[in-house]
């Protein structure tokens, strides 16, 4: 029997840490859904290095050796587990076709073929895990480090047939995955995170292509498969010094520079500027993000006030998704919002908390509110008329005049319309005055959301550099 600690730790967020970690079956099931394989083919591990180490342990136990690329972390593992006999494990970095991996697995059998797919999310390659079912000696390693932002948490997965995973598990140390890591990984892989994670990866890929294109005018460049660009400047040492002067950390790999790619264009602009490639001046990005996790909802919301798209919304309440889409489309900004809520109870929490998250993201994106028009004003829709006035003053003050006779439009409760805009006004720090009249409740509701988007479009418009207030601050 494993006894719990006699008391919890004296740390914030330490709930449950007085007990030894349980199994990671829930995490394995979620990983299986993400990687599109059966749950019994996934073994959670502490990142790629841990997965590799398990393979090295098997080789050492069986008196064999490991054939692996000449690079970290393979070299350091080889020092810990020196070669003995014939290869028992072959490790490759494969971002090619699954068919090629299957062919190699057949060629090296009965040795384990371990495929490092730590960067595959940033490539166009298909995962080798698609052929695991036909290859009993194949192990595919995935990672949450870079694609999911958990490099410091060290979480990943080994994907293989159940009997092969049993071999890996036989050399697994007790309590291999600490409870906090499991919790972090489950949060990062929650369905509410998938839209924003996909957009982050796509943004990094776009920025990688931009950097490679610009640098390619000066030097040979190899776009990396991950968030890196490999470049060959004439004087690598001088390039490193220039990068450091611009606050960009890079390193040498042989005669090539490994250049990091950020999701932030302004950071990548500094990288380009260090090579004398000065991009066009741009205003600081007006982006905002809110992560809201409660016992009732799990939400990620992101906005970019200076980009018209993408607009992707999934709350589980179809009509509300459509209404939020109206705000973003008529507001002229990018909105990504995904919510996993307790819809089995009622849509109230999902709708309210999504509005709060959107307001928080908008508030963050507005920042000091320099140069904005500040005020926004109206929208008729057939027989309905919605008047919306906005003051992005930083002071919340919601007013709503209007009634609805229809209790539901789809799964959307019409009585929550006033609640949505109260939550938005309070979360974003704005006076929002709304009045709506008409006969058709669908038209009235949609008119309100569209009018709010149009009023917001006017209010967030950049007209200069000054804070629009005689006080000098909002």
Q: TL;DR?
A:
With 474 residues, the protein is of the alpha+beta class.
Describe this structure in words.
With 474 residues, this protein is of the alpha+beta class. Helix content is 36%, strand content 21%. It has 13 helices and 21 strands. It has helices at 25-35, 47-61, 74-80, 98-108, 162-169, 179-188, 194-215, 236-245, 265-274, 318-331, 348-366, 417-428, 441-460; strands at residues 42-45, 65-67, 87-93, 112-116, 138-143, 156-159, 221-223, 228-231, 251-253, 256-260, 287-293, 297-304, 311-314, 334-341, 375-376, 379-381, 384-391, 397-401, 408-409, 412-413, 431-437. The strands form five sheets. The chain has a six-stranded mixed β-sheet, sandwiched between helices. Strands 15, 16, 17, 18 and 21 form a five-stranded mixed β-sheet that branches. A four-stranded antiparallel β-sheet has the order 7-8-10-9, covered by helices on one side. Helix 7 (194-215) runs parallel beside helix 9 (265-274), helix 10 runs parallel beside helix 13 (441-460) and helix 11 packs parallel to helix 12. The longest helix has 22 residues, at 194-215.
């Amino acid at each position: 029997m494993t006894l719990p600690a006699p008391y919890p730790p004296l740390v914030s967020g330490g709930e449950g840490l007085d007990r030894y970690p349980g199994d990671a079956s829930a995490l394995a099931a979620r990983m299986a859904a993400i990687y599109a394989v059966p749950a019994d083919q996934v073994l959670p591990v502490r990142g790629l290095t841990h997965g590799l180490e398990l393979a090295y342990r098997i080789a050492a136990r069986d008196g064999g050796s490991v054939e692996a690329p000449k690079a970290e972390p393979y070299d350091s593992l080889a020092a810990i587990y020196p070669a003995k006999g014939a290869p028992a494990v072959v490790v490759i970095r494969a971002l090619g076709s699954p068919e090629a991996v299957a062919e190699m697995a057949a060629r090296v059998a009965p040795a384990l073929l371990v495929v490092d797919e730590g960067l595959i999310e940033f490539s166009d390659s298909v995962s080798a895990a698609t052929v695991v079912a036909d290859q009993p000696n194949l192990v595919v390693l995935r990672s949450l480090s870079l694609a999911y932002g958990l490099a410091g948490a060290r979480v990943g997965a080994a994907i293989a047939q159940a009997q092969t995973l049993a071999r890996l598990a036989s050399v697994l140390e007790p309590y291999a995955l600490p409870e906090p890591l499991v919790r972090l990984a489950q949060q990062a892989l929650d369905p509410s995170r998938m839209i924003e994670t996909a957009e982050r990866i796509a943004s990094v890929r776009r920025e990688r292509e931009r950097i490679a294109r610009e640098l390619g005018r000066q030097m040979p460049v190899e776009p990396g498969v991950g968030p890196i660009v490999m470049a060959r400047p004439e004087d690598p040492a001088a390039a490193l010094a220039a990068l450091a002067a611009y606050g960009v950390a890079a390193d040498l790999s042989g005669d090539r520079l490994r250049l990091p790619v950020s999701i932030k264009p302004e950071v990548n602009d500094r990288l380009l500027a260090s090579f004398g490639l000065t991009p066009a001046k741009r205003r600081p990005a007006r982006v905002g993000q809110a992560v809201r996790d409660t016992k009732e909802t799990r939400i990620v919301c992101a906005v970019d006030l200076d980009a018209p798209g993408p607009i992707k919304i999934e709350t589980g309440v179809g009509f509300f998704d459509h209404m939020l889409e109206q705000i973003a489309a008529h507001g002229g900004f990018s909105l990504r919002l995904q919510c996993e809520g307790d819809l089995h109870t009622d849509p109230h929490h999902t709708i309210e908390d999504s509005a709060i998250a959107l307001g928080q993201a908008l508030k963050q994106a507005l920042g000091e509110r320099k140069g904005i028009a500040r005020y926004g004003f109206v929208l008729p829709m057939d027989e309905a008329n919605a008047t919306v006035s906005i003051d992005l003053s930083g002071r919340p003050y919601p007013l709503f005049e209007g009634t609805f006779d229809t209790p539901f439009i789809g799964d959307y409760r019409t009585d929550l319309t006033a609640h949505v805009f109260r939550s938005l006004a309070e979360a974003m720090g704005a006076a929002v005055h709304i009045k709506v009249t008409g006969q058709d409740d669908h038209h009235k509701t949609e008119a309100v959301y569209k009018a709010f988007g149009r009023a917001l479009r006017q209010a967030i418009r950049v007209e200069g550099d000054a804070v629009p207030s005689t006080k000098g601050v909002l």
